[in-house]
Amino acid sequence: MTALVVIWGFAAALTIEQGKQLLRIQKVYDNIVYPVGEAINELQSERFVSVSYLAWRTSALHTDLRVQRRKTDATAVLLTRLSEQARDETPAAMWDRLQDLIRQLDRLDVLRGQVDDKRLTRLDVIEEYSSVVETAHQVYDRLMISPDIDIIEQTKALILITRSREMVSQQSALVLGAQASGRMTQDERDAFSGMVGKRRLLYQLGTSQLDAGLLKQYGTLNSTPTYTSFLSLEDDVIARVRPGQPLPPEAIAWPTTAQALTRQLTETTGAAAGVTAARAAPLAQSVLWDIGIVGGLGLAAVLATAFISFRFARTVTGELSMLHRAAADLAGRRLPDLVRRLRRGEDVDVAAETPPMAQASGTVEIENVGRAFTSVQHTAIEAAVGQAELRKGVNKVFLNLARRSQSLLQRQLGMLDGLEKEITDPDLLERLFGVDHLTTRMRRHSEGLIILSGAVPGRGWRNPVRLYDVARAATEEVEDYLRVDVNMPHGYSLAGGSVTDVVHLLAELIENATVFSPPQTRVQVRGELVARGFAIEVEDRGLGIPSEELAHINARLADPPEFDLADSDRLGLFVVGLLARRHNIRVSLRTSPYGGTSAVLLLPQEIVVENDTREPTVERLAQPEAPPPALALTPPIGGGGAQDSLPRRVRQANLAPQLMEEQGDLFSSFQAGWRRAQEDS
Fold first, then answer.
1. For the segment 353-376, what is each residue's pLDDT rounded down to a tens digit?
2. What count of other Cβ atoms lies within 10 Å of the Cβ of residue 117?
3. Which reaction does it catalyse (predicted)?
4. CA distance 171 to 234
5. Of 472, 467, 494, whose CA–CA distance to 608 is shortest?
6. Structural element, H or E, at residue 214
């Protein structure tokens, strides 16, 4: 019933609106259509006098031109004032074009100045004024305020005839200038030929659409001597006028003939427009009768269907409420819970998770809606399961590739160890250390893929490792490690099961600090025991991070989202967040006092072990007679140049024994080969 009431009200509103439109057509005609027509007439007159002045250049014509300009300005002021009274009744498109016309009328002083200074040709003046008149005709083009098809067709026909009258006015101004100079230029003759074709086409199209009553007026006009003389004028110009040649004797009457036809067309078109506007009033009265009939019949239909609507309302409402509860439960509880289970890696049976959304109903439409909801439910759950399977497959690909790369990199590190022991050339050994360092960093990136896939890297330690050595090991995996200063107390160690992940986590943060800070600055790594664990701070002196982005990064570190393949530029951020969540480590970024960024790690007490610290002892080393090996940390005494006396970096020389790579004995080689065979398989 509600729908029927709405439809009835909508139909009544449309009918009432139609009546209002027919009643207000007279107001639009009086306040806009008629004033715009007056403005067109004055613009055409000013164009004609302007061309006359440019042709004859007499003081009398200049006086006439000033008088005509004042008439045009007065018409523009009247148009502006009257149009405001019909603003609410005017269609939006028509109002916009009217405002364009008013703005162009306000800027006529520029064109008039060019005419006074004689900076324009006669043809240029005709084109400039014609562009303003064209805007006025476009106001008529938007005159669509009547819903009656007959009135619309007659209005369009009159607009076409009005445009043809404008072409007559342009022809009148053009032949006047030609008469003054005694000849036509090529451009003027071409322009006149175009005007003739356009006028005849517009006039023929307009009169062909008029009904018998309006067409009779134009038939009378067509039989007048003025119209036939004008047709002869057009034919003479096209047939007899040659560019640059003197005009025929009949040319003296051309401007008079064109002006006379312009006046007759103006009078005839104005009368026809008045007749068209008067036709709207009877139509409005007919629409009012329609309103009464539609309203009465619609009200009767509403009352007749009220009983039927209320009878079935309760049943339909109950079934729809049940369907609504089932859909809300799917969206608010079942589907989110299913997604969480899939993220935890659980297997999901799609058929068992998609029960029917609604039971059998007496209404066919509700049953169809229930089946549609069930289909949507099945598709959504099936898509979620498919995405989870796809993500698992991607993770397996990550893990397989990373394991293979890790195995090869581990073998490469073993080969580099052997080469470092055999080579004694310091320069070659230094370059070999660079390759060793690069391989170590490649292994860290490979382990990053393993972490993103949800697995654990193969490296691990059973016994606790000093935190100082953990920080040094992380620094060793950074490209620009020489810029890193480590200040860590020696009295605390890290549980063996967390060493690999913490080294990787610290290496990501330290590398980020070295990359995003100037190369001449230092990166500080400090640590101390705090109330809730052990805090490690990595501070750089770069440009810092904007506060909005800093808050976004901290939120992702506190609650790492699911890895997004499209966000590959922030792999390190994902890795840090996953490692921190795995060991309950809190990682946060903040702005440092030096303008850079400080990353603070809070290691929980469960993975920090306090051990006995011993003061380091220094033992004087005996001076070797032979050239010192690459392991020497002090320069040789005597006999060497400045370059030979510099210390050389030794791979893993600054690490604790627990963090060093395994040595190449027979049993360890057997274990490494067995592990590689398992990984490659």
1. 667 655 655 566 676 777 776 777
2. 8
3. ATP + protein L-histidine = ADP + protein N-phospho-L-histidine
4. 9
5. 494
6. helix 212-222
Report the chain's terminal Cα–Cα distance, integer Å: 73
Average the pLDDT over 52-78 and give the result. 93
If you search the block for the tokens 């070659």, which residue do you land on? 428
Does the pTM of the predicted model rise above 0.85? no
To 10 degrees, what angle do helices 149-181 and 122-141 make? Answer: 170
Contact between 207 and 83 (Cβ < 8 Å):
no
What is the dihedral angle through the alpha carbons of 388, 392, 397, 401, rounded to the nearest 10 degrees? 140
> Which is more confidently placed, 632 or 291?
291
Give the C-alpha separation, 127 to 106, whole Å: 18
Q: Are strands 533-539 and 586-591 parallel, antiparallel or unpaired?
A: unpaired
Residues 6+ apart with CB under 8 A from 326: 357, 358, 373
Sign (positive/negative) of CA torsion 130, 133, 135, 141? Answer: negative
For residue 299 the two structure tokens come to 């009200």
Strand order in the sheet with 465-466: 465-466, 492-494, 608-610
Report pLDDT digits (tens) over 149-197: 777 888 888 889 999 999 999 999 999 888 888 889 999 999 999 999 9
175 is written with which tokens?
């032949």
What DSSP state is assigned to residue 586? E
At which residue do the structure tokens 């476009």 appear?
138
Q: How far is CA 411 from the centre of its chain?
A: 50
Give the span between the Cα atoms of 198 and 164, in whole angstroms.
Answer: 7
Q: Which amino acid is at 234?
A: E
In the 3-class helix/strand/coil scheme, how is 650-664 assigned residue by residue?
CCCCCCCHHHCCCCC
| Structural contact between residues 529 and 609, judged by C-beta atoms closer than 8 angstroms | no
What is the torsion angle, in degrees rounded to the nearest 10, for the CA atoms of residue 450, residue 451, residue 452 and residue 454? Answer: 90
Crossing angle (nearest 10°) for helices 467-476 and 496-515: 50
- Element holding 479 (H helix, E strand): none
Q: Identify the residue whose tokens are 């490692």.
A: 579
| Distance between CA atoms of residues 108 and 72, nearest Å | 10
- In three-state secondary structure terms, 406 is helix
Mean pLDDT along residues 488-516: 88
Task: Please tell me the distance from the alpha carbon of residue 338 to that of residue 348, in angstroms, as a whole number.
Answer: 8
H or E element, residue 636: none
Instruction: Calculate the CA 427 to chain-centre distance.
Output: 56
C-alpha span between 579 and 456 (Å, rounded): 10
Length of the chain: 681
Cα separation, 419 vs 429, in Å, equals 9
- DSSP character string of 277-290: HHTHHHHHHHHHHH
Q: What is the DSSP string of 412-431?
A: HHHHHHHHHHH---HHHHHH
Task: Please state, in angstroms and rounded to a whole number, the distance separating the CA atoms of residues 105 and 80.
Answer: 10
Residue 517 makes CB contacts below 8 A (sequence gap 6+) with 523, 540, 541, 542, 596
